[in-house]
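Input (structure):
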């Protein structure tokens, strides 16, 4: 029994010695702790308030993406010979068609050869009931047909 008592006394002394070696919290430490706790609570409240705003922005972005997805499905792009082609079905005048192409980083069609011509006209036949489409050529000077993209004269003219 005496040896158990000594062992218990020894353990208590070691634990108490460890506790006594820790610094005591002062009133200033408690105030700093409370300030940090308040700042953390304020940050939490701020983040909660922003979450609602962020959520509404995400919902608006998702709505825009859904709309774009529907547009992409409706308006298919065709990739051929390192070019992307878009065959739209908007009913617009030539200048409006040219402007719309420029807005999306492109230009009205410039045919380079018969294989490109065949590909485009096959796609037009498959995709639309319309019979007229705009090409990217113009005759600003009467009879001098040039591609609007680079102002070169039409080299390939065998359109169906």
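Output (sequence):
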């Amino acid at each position: 029994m005496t040896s158990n008592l000594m062992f218990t006394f020894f353990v208590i002394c070691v634990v108490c010695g460890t506790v006594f070696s820790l610094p005591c919290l002062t009133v200033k430490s408690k105030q700093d702790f409370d300030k940090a706790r308040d700042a953390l609570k304020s940050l939490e409240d701020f983040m909660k308030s922003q979450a609602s705003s962020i959520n509404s922005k995400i919902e608006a972005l998702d709505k825009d993406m859904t709309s774009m997805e529907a547009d992409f499905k409706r308006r298919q792009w065709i990739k051929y010979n390192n070019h992307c082609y878009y065959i739209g079905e908007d009913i617009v005048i030539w200048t409006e068609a040219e402007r719309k192409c420029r807005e999306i980083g492109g230009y009205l069609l410039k045919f380079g050869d018969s294989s490109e011509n065949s590909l485009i006209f096959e796609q037009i036949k498959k995709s639309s009931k319309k019979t007229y489409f705009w090409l990217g050529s113009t005759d600003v000077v009467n009879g001098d047909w040039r591609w609007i993209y680079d102002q070169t004269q039409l080299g390939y003219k065998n359109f169906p």
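Notes: The helical segments are 2-21, 27-74, 94-103, 114-127. The radius of gyration is 38 Å.
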